């Protein structure tokens, strides 16, 4: 597949980012994706700066290829995590950002020669980011696993492509070559996938969580946090059903207090990843889970997705 100048400049073989998933995307997964020719991205989530430093060391020990870090802007450790990334500027090729506006950190990253690629849920945010001078944006639809916006990928991507004159990467609901081909047809230059990499052999989430993604059908995801704030797409399990029941009950009160529900959610992704417990763990995953039904190496995933996209696109110009 012929890559756009932007993807060529990242020195990649495939126009595919592996989403920087909190607690899931560690140094091992990121290095495996980068070694196979995609962009591996370590998810820093709410982890401490020490954990992030450790995962960067792990990635560095496993690959000489470029890799990135996802910075979760809502993290209480965001400033210390960014300090670590800046110290590691010779190893970190790019930063993707989630849950907010990274403007205040942009100058420091640019000075360190680290590219900044925010995840955007709307054309408005995409325009603001382009004006601020980011290198590209990831337009992520609400089909995706994890925290979500309101737009669907199909509607969001072409509108973001029209709104900005920087490269657009599509995310949300892309699980195979047809999704990659469709994204290119919508004007994106590449894609970011999360859910498909959850089941990669090199992804070390708890086997019970992985099995749930492999077995999930199309309608097996729920959105938690619709009432309590910060909506997130997860697989249906005891934890997510309880969470939604609690928050709905609270929302019906004249003075809702969501602190109990928030308590339930705190650390729930980490528990899912580390213990697999479906009672207290959030199995974050996207609507494309129904299509993701075999465990493969990241190299097989990248090759299969790209080959299928090439076949799907056939003679179309892209
Ligand atoms: C378990 C999980 C955790 C995630 N954590 C983050 C995160 O910390 N920061 C972020 O920007 N995106 C996060 N995402 C979103 C992914 O990076 C990616 O954009 C998304 O999964 C793409 O949609 P898909 O799941 O349909 O492939 C997460 C997704 C999943 C499934």
UniProtKB/TrEMBL annotation:
Keywords in alphabetical order: Flavoprotein, FMN, Oxidoreductase
InterPro entries linked to this entry: Aldolase_TIM, NMO
One Pfam family it belongs to: NMO
Coiled coil: none
Keyword match S-adenosyl-L-methionine: no
CDD domains registered for this protein in UniProt: NPD_like
SUPFAM superfamilies: Inosine monophosphate dehydrogenase (IMPDH)
Role of this protein: Nitronate monooxygenase that uses molecular oxygen to catalyze the oxidative denitrification of alkyl nitronates. Acts on propionate 3-nitronate (P3N), the presumed physiological substrate. Probably functions in the detoxification of P3N, a metabolic poison produced by plants and fungi as a defense mechanism.
Protein name from the UniProt record: Probable nitronate monooxygenase
């Amino acid at each position: 597949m012929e890559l756009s100048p932007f993807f060529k400049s990242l020195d990649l073989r495939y126009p595919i980012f592996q989403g920087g998933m909190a607690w899931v995307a560690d140094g091992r997964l990121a290095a495996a994706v980068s070694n196979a020719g995609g962009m591996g991205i370590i998810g820093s989530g709410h982890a401490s700066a020490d954990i992030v430093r450790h995962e960067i060391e792990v990635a560095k020990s496993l690959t000489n290829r470029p890799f990135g870090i996802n910075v979760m802007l809502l993290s209480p450790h965001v400033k210390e995590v960014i300090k670590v990334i800046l110290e590691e500027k010779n190893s970190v090729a790019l930063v993707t950002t989630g849950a907010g506006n990274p403007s205040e950190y942009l100058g420091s990253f640019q000075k360190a020669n680290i590219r900044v690629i925010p995840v955007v849920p709307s054309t408005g945010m995409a325009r603001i980011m382009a004006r601020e001078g980011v290198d590209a944006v990831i337009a992520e639809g609400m089909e995706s696993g994890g925290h979500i916006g309101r737009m669907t990928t199909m509607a969001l991507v072409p509108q973001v492509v029209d709104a900005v004159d920087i490269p657009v990467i599509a995310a949300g609901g892309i699980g195979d070559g047809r999704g990659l081909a469709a994204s290119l047809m919508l004007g994106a230059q590449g894609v970011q996938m999360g859910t498909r990499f959850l089941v990669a052999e090199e992804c070390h989430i708890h086997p019970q969580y992985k099995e749930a993604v492999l077995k999930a059908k199309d309608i097996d995801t729920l959105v938690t946090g619709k009432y309590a704030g910060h909506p997130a797409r997860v697989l249906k399990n005891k934890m997510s059903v309880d969470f939604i029941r609690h928050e709905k009950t609270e929302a019906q009160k004249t003075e809702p207090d969501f602190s109990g529900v928030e308590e339930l959610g705190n650390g729930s992704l980490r528990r899912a990843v580390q213990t697999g417990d479906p009672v207290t763990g959030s199995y974050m995953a996207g609507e494309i889970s129904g299509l993701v039904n075999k465990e493969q190496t990241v190299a097989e995933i990248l090759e299969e997705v790209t080959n299928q996209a090439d076949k799907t696109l056939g003679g179309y110009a892209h």
